[in-house]
Design goal:
The structure holds 2 protein chains of 2 kinds.
Chain A: H1 3-9, E1 12-23, E2 30-41, E3 45-49, H2 56-63, E4 71-76, E5 79-80, H3 86-96, E6 97-100, H4 112-123, H5 129-139, H6 154-166, E7 172-176, H7 184-201, E8 205-208, H8 212-215, E9 220-225, E10 228-234, H9 238-249
Parallel strand pairs in A: 3-8, 3-9, 6-7, 7-8
Antiparallel strand pairs in A: 1-2, 1-4, 4-5, 9-10
Helix pairs in contact in A: 4-6, 5-6, 6-7
Chain B: H1 2-11, H2 13-52, E1 57-61, H3 63-69, E2 79-80, H4 81-88, E3 93-99, E4 101-103, E5 105-107, E6 113-114, E7 119-122, E8 133-137, E9 145-149, H5 150-156, E10 163-168, E11 171-182, E12 194-197, H6 199-206, E13 212-213, E14 215-220, H7 224-234, E15 239-243, H8 244-291, H9 293-301, H10 306-345, H11 358-384, H12 404-423, H13 427-461, H14 465-476, H15 478-515, E16 521-525, H16 532-539, E17 544-557, E18 560-566, H17 569-575, E19 580-583, E20 596-601, E21 614-619, E22 624-633, H18 637-642, E23 644-646, H19 648-655, E24 662-667, H20 673-684, E25 689-693, H21 696-737, H22 739-747, H23 752-793, H24 803-828, H25 833-837
Parallel strand pairs in B: 7-12, 9-11, 18-23, 20-22
Antiparallel strand pairs in B: 1-14, 1-15, 2-13, 3-14, 4-7, 5-6, 5-10, 8-11, 9-12, 10-11, 16-24, 16-25, 17-18, 17-21, 17-24, 19-22, 20-23, 21-22
Helix pairs in contact in B: 1-10, 2-8, 2-10, 2-11, 2-21, 8-11, 8-15, 8-21, 10-11, 12-13, 12-23, 13-14, 13-15, 13-23, 14-23, 15-21, 15-23, 21-23, 21-24, 23-24
Classes of the chains: A alpha/beta, B alpha+beta.
The complex binds adenosine-5'-triphosphate and magnesium ion.
């Protein structure tokens, strides 16, 4: 049974259907997304790649409910997010989604522990203590939980952000260039950890990246160019991804 | 450099808006106050010239002698006709004018009185000395002829030739209107109308038939100084002669000094408002420097010297100060125009019109600019210290650390201030002590911000994560929080100081006065008399136990102008508080051998005559008698009304058998409402009679203090308004700064409502800190002040703390916080989340 066949029987954690996003009008119109249809299956790690300006961030943001499509639909599970109002969207994000960004991740006045628990605090729920401990141990933050972000290194801060995205057990985690600002060793630690979350806990992750090595941690890579999906690759390796990238540019 | 500065101001205009508003409000207030009070001053001074322009010599009662003598403004001495006749025959005198006024009113054909506050005036026949001129008709020349001012004639539809009924001190008089008068450009000399009557009628109607004048003016060809000297020789005691210039200067002072004082006081509040604005400006620039650190660092990296950086910031301050002040001056004038317009609609007008004096314009601009530039000094120093390396760092955060020196300075200042207020007697040192304590609080405010935030944390954490974050944000840059709160702190401090110290002094003063017993009512006739019919009417009112009428006349005793009375002493002592210090009142009437007796008041000044000694009493016509002192009276409210008491026989030989002019009224205890109304109604029928409740002085003092406290508090609210602008500004800037953080919070699930609540909570926290700080500081300083006042004056002012008002202030503080957050809170969630986190 191929991975593709396997995917078809899995339910999609998130989907985009004929998704279009246009900035500006008339001659000045930019089609950031020019009709994208894609499934992000449960328990799978998907990487999105493509040249700068190809629409990777736009796709992710629209699916994650941070931005609205010009036309088409974006679904989280069975929920059509274009039908939700602002507050409903916020609550959906809080309860069902996790986010990791390249930068500006943490609230400076809260300790590492408080930052990790922030989404749960906002929802007014308690963390599952053993799950919290496990995640903290895996990202190696046991000793630093009481520290403020300003007392942590960039890599440590990003680990706090990853832990924060995972602790509430969201349906799906969206990461936009999570390793972009990190050195390669720390980057690898973060990616390894994300991989383990998928393998061991069945987490669903969608990650935008420029780095072929980072993409090789994913189950599947989608290639975007000019707002359209132009290719996809199962079981990617860094070399295969790099080759494919070169084809686009060539 | 200037180009860089200008483009920076333009680019940051949004951020500077609050600064501009703060400067504008302060300068506008300052200018408006200047324009209005200039108008008032010049109109009052201008009237003096129009009214007394041709006076060369003025004969007036010696006001300084009478004013201090008694609290209850007794009738002043009047210039008797024989003296005037002598004055007019002096060499070089070419003309004279006597002033005599009294209250009059008209009785309408429907039986209702109108123009009830009009002033009856003797018509001056000397053209040069008469301040009034005829607009229509003729001057009143024979008895029963009157002239009224243009305003009254217009208001009540009076025309030349009308037959009217005039209510005077002497009763109802049938009169004919023969002329309409005006005073310069204005309709009337007296605010509520002028009724001019002939000299003979004036004596009869306004002065109980006595040929006397309140003051007398002379016009002459001689050197005024010579005239003054020769006039002085013919005058009895108790009068003063002044040259026209002296007299006009005096008049200007009495009329103008009130306005001058008012102007100074209002200006002080305007400057205060501007100073509070200074905090807002300081804060804005501090935040702007922090936000622009990267830009400044790039400038430093490419070779801008610290001096240049400092100068560019100061220049920005200068530009803003100038622009804000200019706008403020314009706003000030617009404000006065509006005020004038509103007054015009309601039928009034600003006195003196609108003067667009250069001094107001220049003063406002200079003051606003200087305060702005001064407020920018410290942020400019910070800008100059920018290191190029800061261009590389992430968003610069103001350090939350507070230097050690700050703490030490605070503690030392507080210690010195408290010591100065508690230990010294020197008023100036006490004042400096108070200022030191205030300075300590302002300097130490960042500690208060930190401590206060810690204190409120448990409370705010009940609001959940947003409460917690609100506290954290305010502690993140305690200096900024402190400066914002300080602006409010100053306002609340002053309001509290006025409320507590003012209320305490008021209660003390009222208490002191209330200690003095007095009759229940004092009924006085100004210029008329209390005839038997009136007294018996008064006595028949329900619950009135007793009415004791007596006679009072202005006299001089041993050269000091005062009043003296005569009446049934034993009856008087029953209803009024006539306390004898030494001697016995009973001895007053007993001397039958022709030598008179007197009971004098111990005024506490000069030597009090001994019992058995003699004093010389001179009446207003200059007649002298020597009287034996049989008693010395304590100064009380009631003896202030009676003055010295002379035995009846002597009194009658001195002034004739005149009717009583005063009466003390005793009512059953507990008589309220209706009795009071009946007495007042009875008094209202006669224009000359007023009925005052006993202890009116105490009540008056209370009312005056209450009014002052309210007025001053109102003015101080101006600074609170500017403080609100400051909070809005700080919150808006800090939201701009925390844009990404807020965006992130919203992405990971904080709803917009909660974000807005967070902003509101932070704002409320800041305003609570300011309000509480101001309240506590105000309480402490006013209590310390009272302690030093008590020690200094050996008085015992007990602090009266107006708890209700303090609670109201506290509640208002919270409301201010909520109000100030409205705009910033909306702004905090206006951006789309994606724009909020996108890096720029
Ligand atoms: N707010 C906007 N207004 C106008 N055009 C926009 C806006 N945001 C994105 N675009 C355009 O949409 C297109 C896709 O942008 P997007 O940010 O998704 O690219 P990306 O693939 O994430 O690029 P990168 O790898 O550089 O992050 C680009 O051409 C961009 O210029
Ligand atoms: Mg992108």
């Amino acid at each position: 049974m191929t991975a593709a066949a396997d995917r078809s029987v899995r339910t999609a954690a998130a989907r985009a259907v004929e998704a279009r996003k246009t900035y500006g009008v008339g001659d000045a119109a930019v089609h950031a997304l020019a009709g994208v249809t894609v499934d992000f299956p449960e328990h799978e790690f998907t990487a999105i790649m493509g040249p700068s300006g190809s629409g990777k961030s736009t796709l992710m943001q629209c699916v994650a409910g941070l931005d609205r499509l010009t036309s088409g639909a974006a679904l989280i599970g069975e929920t059509d997010i274009s039908k939700l109002n602002k507050t409903q969207l916020t609550l959906l994000r809080r309860d069902r989604l996790g986010f990791i960004f390249q930068q500006y991740n943490l609230i400076p006045s809260l300790t590492a522990r408080e930052n990790i628990l922030l989404p749960l605090t906002l929802a007014g729920t308690k963390a599952d203590q053993s799950w919290f401990d496990e995640i903290v141990r895996t990202v190696g933050l046991q000793d630093r939980l009481g520290n403020l972000p300003s007392q942590l290194s960039g890599g440590q801060q990003q680990r706090v952000a990853v832990a924060r995205a995972l602790v509430p057990k969201p349906d799906i985690v969206f990461a936009d260039e999570p390793t972009g600002a990190l050195d390669s060793r720390t980057g690898i630690e973060i990616l390894t950890f994300m991989r383990r979350a998928v393998d061991e806990s069945g987490q669903t992750i969608v990650m935008v990246t420029h780095d072929p090595h980072a993409a090789s941690y994913a189950d599947r890579v989608l290639f975007l160019a000019d707002g359209q999906i132009v290719d996809s690759m199962e079981a990617p390796t860094a070399d295969k991804v790099l080759d494919r990238m070169k084809q686009f540019e060539g | 450099m200037l180009k860089l500065v200008l483009s920076s101001v333009r680019h940051n205009l949004g951020r500077y808006l609050a600064t501009l508003i703060a400067i504008m409000t302060g300068v506008g207030f300052y200018t408006a106050v200047g324009v209005v009070s200039d108008g008032v001053i010049s109109s009052l001074e201008g009237n003096v010239d129009a009214e007394y322009g041709n006076v060369d010599v003025a004969v007036v009662p010696d006001v300084t002698a009478t004013a201090d003598e008694t609290a209850a403004d007794p009738e002043a001495l009047k210039v008797p006709q024989p003296t005037v006749d002598q004055l007019l025959t002096l060499p070089g005198v070419e003309g004279g004018a006597g002033i005599l006024t009294g209250s009059v009113a008209f009785l309408g054909s429907d039986g209702k009185p109108f123009a009830t506050s009009a002033v009856g005036r003797l018509w001056i026949t000397d053209q040069d000395l008469n301040p009034l001129s005829l607009a229509d008709g003729d001057a009143p020349a024979s008895t029963g002829e009157i002239a009224v001012d243009r305003g009254t004639a217009g208001d009540h539809g009076l025309d030349v030739g009308d037959d009217l009924t005039l209510l005077t001190l002497a009763g109802k008089e049938k009169v004919t209107l023969v002329g309409i008068t005006e005073f310069g450009d204005s309709a009337a000399l007296d605010g509520d109308g002028t009724v001019s009557v002939t000299e003979a009628d004036a004596f009869d109607w306004l002065n109980s038939g006595q040929a006397e004048y309140e003051s007398y003016y002379l016009r002459g060809s001689e050197d005024p100084d010579d005239l003054v000297a020769s006039a002085g020789e013919v005058l009895p005691d108790g009068f003063e002669v002044q040259t026209g210039d002296e007299f006009r200067a005096d008049q200007r002072e009495t009329t103008g000094s009130f306005a001058q004082g008012l102007k100074t006081a209002l200006r002080a509040f305007a400057v205060l408002a501007l100073l509070v604005g200074g905090f807002v400006i300081f804060n804005t620039f501090s935040v702007i420097v922090a936000q622009r650190l990267r830009e400044l660092a790039v400038l430093a990296a490419i070779g801008a010297t610290p001096r240049q950086l400092k100068r560019s910031l100061r220049l920005e301050g200068l530009v803003l100060g100038l622009v804000g002040s200019l706008l403020g001056v314009v706003a000030g004038y617009v404000l006065t125009l509006l005020l004038d317009g509103v007054l015009k609609v309601t039928g009034g007008s600003l006195p003196g019109g609108l003067g667009f004096g250069l001094s107001n314009v220049l003063g406002g601009i200079a003051l606003g600019t200087i305060i702005t530039v001064l407020s920018v000094m410290i942020p400019a120093r910070r800008a100059a210290r920018t290191e190029p390396i800061e261009a590389m760092r992430d968003a610069a955060v103001e350090s939350a650390e507070l230097g050690r020196t700050r703490g030490i300075v605070c503690v030392v200042l507080v210690a010195l201030g408290v010591a100065a207020m508690l230990l010294t007697d020197e008023l100036a040192v006490v004042g400096i002590g108070a200022v030191a304590i205030i300075a300590a609080v302002l300097i130490g405010a960042p500690y208060l911000a930190k401590g206060g935030a810690r204190l409120f944390r448990p409370l705010l954490e009940r609001f959940g994560m947003e409460g917690r974050l609100a506290v954290d944000n305010s502690v993140r840059s305690p200096k900024r929080t402190a400066t914002t709160a300080n602006a409010l702190l100053i306002g609340v401090f002053l309001v509290t100081l006025v409320a507590v110290a003012g209320a305490s002094v008021r209660d003390f003063a009222v208490g002191e006065v209330s200690d003095l017993q007095s009759a229940d009512y004092v009924v006085v006739s100004q210029g008329g008399s209390l005839d038997d019919a009136f007294v018996s009417d008064l006595a028949t009112i329900e619950d009135v136990n007793d009415v004791v009428a007596f006679r009072r006349e202005p006299v001089t005793i041993d050269g000091t102008a005062t009043v003296a009375s005569a009446g049934d002493v034993s009856e008087l002592a029953k209803v009024a508080n006539i306390a004898v210090e030494s001697g016995a009142l009973a001895d007053l009437a007993s001397s039958g051998d022709g030598s008179g007796t007197i009971a004098v008041i111990d005024t506490g000044e000069g030597a009090t005559p001994d019992i058995g000694g003699t004093v010389t009493v001179t009446d207003s016509r200059g007649k002298d008698v020597e009287l034996r002192v049989v008693a010395v009276l304590e100064p009380t409210q009631d003896t202030a009304q009676t003055g010295s008491i002379i035995d009846t026989t002597t009194f009658e030989s001195l002034v004739g058998d005149v009717a009583p002019t005063l009466a003390f009224v005793d009512v059953a205890s507990g008589a309220q409402g209706k009795t009071k109304d009946d007495i007042q109604n009875l008094a209202a029928v006669r224009p000359d009679i007023t009925a005052q409740e006993g202890n009116a002085v105490g009540k008056l003092i209370g009312t005056v203090f209450d009014f002052l406290i309210k007025a001053v508090t109102g003015l101080l609210l101006m600074s609170v308004v500017i403080a609100i602008i400051g909070i809005i500004n700080t919150m808006s800037l800090s939201i701009l700064e925390r844009r990404r953080e807020l965006g992130l919070l919203r992405i990971i699930g904080m709803t917009d409502n909660r974000v807005r609540r967070m902003v509101t909570l932070e704002s409320v926290l800041i305003s609570l800190l300011g309000t509480l700080g101001g309240l506590v500081l105000g309480l402490v300083v006013s209590l310390l002040l009272l302690v030093s006042i008590n020690r200094d004056s050996q008085a015992a002012v007990t602090p009266s703390i107006p708890w209700i008002e303090l609670v109201v202030i506290l509640v208002l503080g919270v409301l201010i916080g909520v109000l100030a957050a409205l705009l910033p809170a909306r702004r905090s969630t206006k951006l789309e989340v994606l724009d909020a986190i996108s890096a720029t």
